[in-house]
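Re: the 155-residue chain
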Amino acid sequence: MQSNDVIWTPEVTVAAVIERDGRFLLIEEETADGVKINQPAGHLERDETLTAAVARETLEESAHHFQPECLLGIYHHETPAGVTYMRFAFAGPAGRHEAGRALDRGILRHVWLSADEIRESRARHRSPLVLQCVEDYLAGMRYPLALIRHYAPKS
């Protein structure tokens, strides 16, 4: 690499695809482009595993506990603004709901939508990954969590 080369680093995110009785848990959030719909999702933090990140983000954004059962897929998405995301999407059931829990700043509420309602609301999706993850879930995409190996420095 030459000294004037810039190191490109994609944003690493996680998302939870949670289905119950034919409906999917989504959140409505304030964005620079208005109110958008997304899965409970967010950025991986330093010293955090992917599965811990998705459990944390789901609780912070929906007030639902979540323990992922499988990896749904890994998604590489480049936005029109030139930001690149690597999304690790996980599937599993919704856990206990903490009614009254304060949600992350910008999160308005959680909603349960059918696949058809999600398809019909494409214009409100945070990204095309919202619908893609649902379609992959419905198509039966599932990968074992053992596919992911987390190595941390030994103390």
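The chain has a mean pLDDT of 94.
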